[in-house]
Specification:
heterotrimer; A mainly alpha (282); B alpha/beta (437); C mainly alpha (294); A: mainly alpha; MetI-like fold; 14 helices; 0% strand; B: 437 residues; alpha/beta; D-Maltodextrin-Binding Protein, domain 2; eight-stranded mixed β-sheet; two-stranded antiparallel sheet
């Protein structure tokens, strides 16, 4: 074996170890989550930790929906997320289109405002927002969460969509104009169909961010039947003073709340590496 | 065609604006200066409004405690009076934040299960109403004196005593036996002397909290009292712990931490409970809840023994009394809420929850339930015996903040960031300021 | 013609107006309200009264303020540094061709896709000193003999929460850096190779300079997100023990909802707003010239 190839082998092994290390760090918590979600209550607290459950407790998963009553949480999350996505797209697509392809007064200030508005954390304005929602009679009303999701995700999504629309050649607009289309028709009949992948990716982002939203869902909602899955899960952790924390059920619930997101993200992984998020970053 | 677009867009705009138009409505002015002292006051009680049939009231409970009994009671109550009770359940640890938020917004529930520490503050802020006229004299007479004392402010009953628990030290006999400890310690000093024997092989002598504000004080106050310290001095104007006694108590707490399950920094009461029921910790301070949970799960808990509260250096001995209360808020439905609470506070309804959860009854009529007088019932009898030793948390207007400051400095001492004396020397003046506010 | 243009300019505004209305109602108006509230205080019976800048003076004088600022600084700068560093590392690995690359891309996406609440729960369990997985691994490897309480120690709590945050955000950085890497034409590397540059040399001489500007923008964005990230800290430690993991935004929430100290909380919000504005300015400048004019 000559020297260069020896170096190559060492390099290759080193690279392989690096890949394994990254995978280990990324997967470690996920494996732990799945492992705990399949344990029986007592098995969680054994020392040293049993990584492979002694008895695979599949019954934890049905228990999430039965005993822990997570079904309403799921339904609420689905409802709120769907409405939020609808609102974000309804407001976001025209705005992104205008920012990308149309001329209008005050375009630059508007663009900067979109850029800047994604920077201010909802926590900073939580008190006035609470009062505002209260005056609108929307406290403990799912609509308030929809409005908040729209408000605080709109900028990010508009920037994403703008990047998508930017990649459509400007000539398309002119050609459409010659064919007698006005700008609105161009948007509806040409841009939306052409950019459907980009829009789909934006929808998934909007989905994730609405689904994961915690602050408002936690602060604005008080009725048990209106809580989102994220808040329901969080509260199980704190709501069991008599029996200690049912970690195995919490983890089973956590797996259920995560699976839809992971599946969606893996579906769009190629677009994340592309220019999907470029609008916000580049 | 242009018109069509304009129409479509303006429709969209209208929808968006409709959603935003409400804030500019001529509702109360936005300036906080202009708002009334308590947002709830516009719904001041109108004395003559008898609770009509078809009224709906909201009652909030914490955790899942007694949910089944509550649901059943609510149905019976509706059948009897026509008043519907909507039940909500909040997490214990977020309860204060939620109720304060709702009260600020002027949309509190009609009645709620909460903590006695809130009484003074909620009264001052005008959120709650006095209950003397809302409940019958019979119910009032039924409460134990200790319970009434805790709930009375300025001669008026501002909250209704609900669940009372007496906390003492619980031991795991198996672990004590294994360490060769045959006699239970009687003072904190004695406990500290035997504690090292109880540590090893994944087992610990004690389980406690140093971090979580409320639960830190739950664990620390019995020690502070045993050492003749207190949160506030007798006149309530200055702190009662920045002195030799308080520092000695904190020193005990710091020493305990050395032998305690090392999760105290992130623990809340759930964790300590868990440490005891999984037989990781040999001792902790609590009520019978953990045992009741084990009993519920059909597990053996014969290894658990309830000890007398440990004494301090001066021989003082206190058990920690936790008085949970029912509050009635200014919503206009006070009468209906009072009726509901009267209906709920009976031996067959609330009494059943107390029996199940392992709490101590604080209404005389509850003792008609055989379980409460059965000497074999370890859930109640040993704790009920400790009632004369019970001391309750003080009623202070800025209690939540006082609690936070004390807990922070107790934690800093336990973590070794400062000595007990330094910690209380800093916390003392901060608490003084809060007490005088 | 000119008039038609102007008309179009105004008409096109209709596309933007709904979005602007939402921003005006739910971001701009609340911000003005926060400024307003910050100059008031309340009596114990709940009456508001004007106090000028008193709340800000209280903030400056408050015993915990220096700790809060320091924590925020560490949380933002150290956190962002490691997010970018690990992100860059992962991106460089993924830039290579190797078997299983697609699977790996999928896997590193999971932490990013996971709800924050869920990742916080797992990590809380894993950090548990008694039955947690991290302590278990470290004990098995013989690295520690006594259980360590990562979250419940005033010295390590901020670090412990930061690790979770880095774990969740680094993949996002990786994918963004990766897309920048792909945008560098390969012939540049080939040319460098012919000139005799080694891979390390070409990384520092070519790759790094070329991705620097997009890394800077990414860093700003990730830093701003970190500054604003309240949920991770709230769900893992509630800022404790003894405020050791509190940052400015968690302090806002604590004062507003846990102590009912709203005017003071509003003052802290104003401070945050000012700090964020500086970052926002930097961010906008780093994206200057991005508007496409026709």
């Amino acid at each position: 074996m000559n020297k260069p190839s020896a170096i190559k082998t060492v390099k290759r092994i080193f690279f392989g170890l690096l890949v394994l290390l990254i995978l280990f760090i990324m997967l470690f918590p996920i494996v732990a989550m799945i492992s705990v979600s399949l344990k029986q209550a007592n098995d969680v607290f054994t020392v040293p930790v049993t990584w492979i459950p002694k008895h695979t407790a599949w019954e934890n998963y049905p228990a999430v929906f039965g005993k822990m009553k997570m079904t309403t949480g799921f339904l609420n999350s689905i409802l709120i997320t769907a409405a939020s996505i609808g609102g974000i797209m309804l407001l976001g697509i025209p705005a992104a289109f205008a920012l990308s392809k149309l001329r209008f007064v005050m375009k630059k200030p508007v663009y900067y405002m979109v850029l800047v508005s994604q920077m201010f954390a909802p926590v900073i304005v939580i008190i006035p927002l609470y009062n505002l929602m209260n005056r609108m009679g929307l406290i403990d009303n799912r609509l308030s969460l929809v409005i908040m999701n729209i408000t605080f995700n709109l900028a990010f999504i508009v920037l994403m969509l703008k990047a998508t629309f930017d990649s459509v050649p400007k000539e398309t607009v002119e050609a459409a104009k010659i064919d007698g289309c006005n700008s609105f028709m161009t948007l509806v009949w040409i841009f939306v169909p052409i950019s459907r992948t980009g829009i789909a990716v934006a929808v998934i982002y909007a989905f994730t961010r609405s689904w994961n939203e915690f602050l408002f869902a936690f602060t604005f909602m008080s009725s048990t039947e209106k809580k989102t899955i994220i808040v329901s899960l969080y509260e199980v952790l704190k709501n069991n003073p008599a029996v200690g924390i049912p970690w195995h059920l919490v983890m089973a619930g956590a797996v259920c709340a995560t699976v839809p997101l992971v599946v969606l993200f893996i579906l769009i992984r190629n677009y994340i590496t592309g220019n999907a998020t470029a609008g916000a970053v580049k | 065609m242009k018109k069509a677009i304009a129409l479509a867009l303006s429709l969209l705009l209208a929808v968006a604006l409709a959603a935003c138009s409400a804030p500019s409505d001529p509702t109360p002015p936005a300036s906080p200066a202009a708002s009334t002292p308590s947002s709830g006051s516009e719904a001041a009680p109108s004395g003559d409004s008898a609770p009509a049939e078809g009224t709906t009231i909201t009652y909030v409970t914490l955790g899942d405690t007694g949910m089944n009994q509550l649901q059943k009671a609510a149905e019976e109550f509706e059948a009897e009076t026509g008043i519907k009770v909507k039940l909500e359940s909040w997490a214990y640890s977020d309860a204060y934040q939620k109720i304060i938020t709702l009260c600020e917004a002027g949309t509190p529930p009609d009645a709620m299960y909460g903590f006695s520490g809130w009484t003074q503050q909620f009264k001052n802020l005008g959120y709650t109403v006095p209950l003397d006229d809302l409940i019958s004299q019979e119910l009032k007479d039924d409460f134990s004196k200790a319970a009434l004392d805790v709930c009375t402010v300025d001669g008026q009953l501002w909250v209704l005593p609900s669940y009372m628990s007496i906390r003492s030290i619980l031991y795991n006999k198996n672990l004590l036996d294994a360490a060769g400890i045959t006699e239970l310690p009687t003072t904190w000093q004695e406990f500290l002397e035997v504690a090292p024997k109880l540590v090893g092989g994944g087992k610990y002598a004690y389980s406690m909290v140093a971090g979580h504000p409320k639960n830190t004080l739950d664990c620390f106050l019995p020690i502070l009292w045993a050492y003749d310290g207190d949160v506030a001095s007798a006149d309530g104007k200055t702190n009662g712990f920045n002195n030799e006694n308080g520092v000695a108590a904190l020193q005990v707490y710091c020493d305990l931490a050395k032998y305690a399950v090392p999760d105290y920094g992130e623990a809340d009461i759930n964790f300590t409970q868990n440490n005891f029921t999984t037989q990781t910790a040999a001792a902790y301070i609590h009520n019978a809840q953990g045992l009741a949970a084990l009993a519920d799960a059909g597990e053996d808990y014969s290894w658990a023994v309830i000890g007398a509260p440990l004494k301090g250096a001066g021989g003082s001995q206190y058990s920690l009394g936790i008085m949970d209360v029912d509050l009635v808020f200014k919503t206009g439905n006070e009468e209906a809420a009072g009726k509901w609470l009267e209906f709920w506070h009976t031996k067959d309804r609330m009494g059943d929850v107390i029996e199940q959860a392992g709490w101590v009854p604080n209404q005389k009529s509850f003792f008609e339930r055989p379980a409460f007088t059965d000497p074999a019932n370890v859930m109640v009898a040993p704790f009920a015996e400790l009632e004369p030793l019970a001391k309750f948390k003080p009623t202070i207007s800025s209690w939540e903040e006082v609690q936070k400051v004390m807990a922070d400095y107790i934690t800093k001492a336990v973590m070794g960031e400062m000595t007990p004396a330094e910690a209380f020397a800093e916390a003392g003046p901060m608490v003084d300021e809060l007490l005088q506010k | 013609m000119k008039q038609a243009n102007r008309r179009e300019n105004l008409l096109n505004l209709l596309y933007i107006l709904p979005m602007l209305a939402v921003f005006a109602a739910f971001i701009i108006y609340p911000i003005t309200e926060v400024f307003n509230l910050s100059v008031y205080d309340r009596t114990s019976t709940g009456q508001y009264f004007y106090v000028g800048l008193n709340n800000f003076i209280k903030f400056i004088r408050h015993r915990e303020t220096s700790r809060l600022l320091l924590n925020t600084g560490i949380w933002v700068f150290v956190g962002t540094f490691f997010k970018l560093l690990f992100g860059l590392g992962m991106a460089l690995v993924l830039y290579q061709a190797f078997p299983g690359k697609k699977v790996m891309t999928g896997i590193i996406l999971i932490p990013y896709a996971m709800p924050a609440a869920v990742s916080c729960m797992i990590w809380r369990l894993m950090y548990n000193p008694v039955f947690g997985h991290i302590g278990d691994i470290l004990t098995r490897l013989g690295l520690i003999s006594e259980p360590l309480n990562f979250l419940g120690n005033t010295k390590t709590s901020l670090l412990a929460v930061m690790i979770v945050n880095v774990w969740a955000v680094a993949p996002f950085c990786a994918l963004n850096i990766l897309s920048t890497l792909y945008s560098i034409p390969t012939y540049i590397y080939e040319a460098a190779k012919i000139d005799g540059a080694g891979s390390i040399q070409s990384f520092f001489k070519i790759t790094l300079p070329l991705i620097a500007s997009s890394m800077r923008t990414l860093g700003l964005l990730v830093g701003i997100w970190a500054f604003n990230s309240f949920d991770v800290i709230f769900m893992m430690t509630q800022g404790g023990p003894a405020n050791s993991s509190s940052i400015l935004v968690s302090n806002i929430y604590q004062n507003a909802f846990q102590f009912n100290n709203r005017p003071y909380s509003a003052a802290v919000s104003v401070v945050c707003f000012v700090i964020l504005s500086i970052f926002a300015l930097l961010y906008v400048r780093s994206k200057e010239g991005d508007v496409s004019y026709e």
